[in-house]
Design a protein that fits this description.
Low-confidence stretches: none
Number of strands: 13
Helix content: 25-40%
CATH class of the largest domain: Alpha Beta
CATH topology of the largest domain: Rossmann fold
Distance between the termini: 33 Å
CATH architecture of the largest domain: 3-Layer(aba) Sandwich
Bound molecules: adenosine-5'-triphosphate
Largest sheet: 6 strands, mixed
Number of domains: 3
Mean pLDDT: 90
Order of helices and strands: EEEHEEHEHHHEHEHEEHEEHEH
């Protein structure tokens, strides 16, 4: 599969502070890629470099076939969508009028507004003035703005951090639909559950370094001890290593009806992040 993003030895230094330390990674066309890291690890800086807002101090970046020097061109900008802290709306206009303006700006047909309002579940709020919306609703309008021109690639910096669980699930469904239609999604998040359900692959960023990159399932398998945790009706809690010999013991426990609960040791992404980096993802 072709790559949407190729990053080789990317570094970003701000004065004495190295925000990104020679990182390399690729994002395949059509995938949802999650960049996970604690506060200050360099996620926003990475997005700023990949969208042409900042230049790297060193290294090579290629996004949708555009190299570092071409990321400021309008041809490139028309192919990407961005949702970040800097994204803003016209507070005195309605949801619909905001999106109408952005449609005109991007040269997108107005009929896209209905589609996108459905995707972010704001169909019934189109006539509301933006200043009167809740934080979560505003975030969904911002998401709609980032997606209105059907970009090939979208960058979402903590897109669901202000959302309640129901809105978050709606946004995830919208993003999944968008992804199924071929859009590549680059997302940063602190939320490990979000990364597990949403992302095809994730990379762990810590102190400006990428320390793991793979699918959530592959990482969970890699860091699993593959042991079975068993609780018996007698109240015993057993940790049984997954070996052929222990299989017999497990079989006997099951066949004699002693097993109350059993699960395999499958660490969460948050636990893996802690193991790899020594840091909580908050
Ligand atoms: N314009 C700037 N000038 C100086 N230092 C900066 C600048 N932008 C970012 N940094 C520094 O670079 C490092 C990475 O910051 P960045 O905002 O990329 O982290 P982040 O992972 O997005 O954090 P958060 O999750 O809190 O948004 C931090 O140490 C930050 O202080």
């Amino acid at each position: 599969m072709e790559n949407a993003i190729e990053v080789q030895g990317m570094q970003k230094v701000f004065g004495q502070n190295t925000a990104i330390n020679h990182v390399s990674f690729n994002v395949k066309k059509g995938e949802i890629f999650g960049l996970l890291g604690p506060s200050g690890s360099g996620k926003t800086t990475t997005i700023k470099i990949l969208t042409g807002e900042l230049g790297p101090t060193a290294g090579k970046v290629n996004v949708l076939g555009y190299n570092t020097n071409q990321l400021k061109t309008s041809a490139f900008k028309s192919k990407i969508g961005i949702l970040s802290d800097n994204s803003s709306l016209y507070e005195r206009l309605t949801v619909y009028d905001n999106l109408k303006l952005f449609c005109k700006l991007y040269g997108a047909p107005l009929k896209e507004i209905d589609r996108i309002l459905r995707d972010v579940n704001l169909e019934n709020d189109r006539k509301k003035t933006v200043s009167k919306l809740s934080k979560g609703m505003k975030q969904r309008v911002l998401l709609a703005k980032a997606l209105i021109h059907k970009p090939d690639l979208v960058f979402l910096d903590e897109p669901t951090s202000a959302l309640d669980p129901a809105s978050m699930a709606q946004v995830h469904r919208g993003l999944q639909r968008l992804n199924e239609s071929g859009t590549t999604i680059f997302v940063t998040t602190h939320d490990m559950e979000e990364a597990t359900v949403l992302c095809d692959r994730v990379a762990f960023l810590n102190y400006g370094d990428i320390q793991e990159a793979d699918s959530p399932a592959a990482l969970r398998y890699k860091y699993s001890t593959h042991a079975f945790h068993v609780e018996t009706f007698a109240g015993d809690r057993l940790v049984i290593e997954n070996t052929p010999k222990n299989g017999e013991q497990l079989k006997e426990l099951i066949e004699t009806g002693q097993v109350k609960m059993m699960h395999t040791d499958n660490p969460t992404l948050g636990q893996i992040f802690l193991k790899v980096t020594g840091k909580e993802l908050v």
